[in-house]
């Protein structure tokens, strides 16, 4: 499928771009952390599972025409994590997601990436009302969703726990 959104986005400090095969090594710093994955995949991954997760994100682009970006720090070339569009078949709606390795938390990278994705979504996917689908216990992600203008729409049961649907603004 032809991409519906740009395949890369540049911010002041970041390059959000398509994944490359070697990115799994940096991405594994996120997926190998039980702390970082507690509210997303629910456990630390093996290297093979990280590689397969990355490949599923590449495949998402092929099927949906949009997907998650590798979040690369421009100054170092290091992949810090993931940010972008995500819509697995069991999610309630297309979402803006973000996930960084713990070493990169608290530096504003996630909000910088998420705001850039919001802008691209508004420009290229204007007919999709994007959400962020966040585990109700994931306070840092909830704070980020609120900080970038998303509002709590409702709470739902998903995979055995409470999740919040945060709706992103239709204009920035």
Automatic annotation (TrEMBL):
PROSITE patterns, A to Z: GNAT
Keyword terms: Transferase
GO molecular function: acyltransferase activity, transferring groups other than amino-acyl groups
Residue ranges of domain N-acetyltransferase in the record: 14-172
Full protein name: GNAT family N-acetyltransferase
């Amino acid at each position: 499928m032809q991409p519906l959104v740009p395949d890369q986005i540049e911010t002041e400090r970041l390059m959000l771009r398509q994944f490359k095969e070697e990115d799994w090594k940096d991405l594994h710093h996120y997926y190998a952390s039980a702390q970082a994955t507690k509210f997303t995949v629910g456990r630390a991954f093996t290297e093979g599972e990280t590689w397969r997760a990355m490949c599923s994100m590449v495949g998402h682009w092929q099927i949906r025409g949009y997907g998650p970006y590798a979040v690369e720090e421009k100054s170092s070339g290091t992949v810090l994590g993931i940010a972008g569009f995500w819509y697995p078949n069991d999610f309630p709606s297309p979402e803006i997601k973000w996930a960084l390795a713990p070493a990169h938390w608290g530096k504003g990278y996630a909000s910088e990436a998420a705001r850039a994705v919001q802008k691209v979504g508004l420009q290229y996917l204007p007919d999709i009302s994007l959400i962020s689908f966040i585990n109700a216990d994931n306070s840092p992600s909830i704070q980020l969703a609120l900080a970038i203008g998303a509002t709590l729409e409702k709470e739902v049961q998903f995979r055995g726990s409470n999740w919040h649907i945060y709706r992103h603004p239709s204009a920035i």
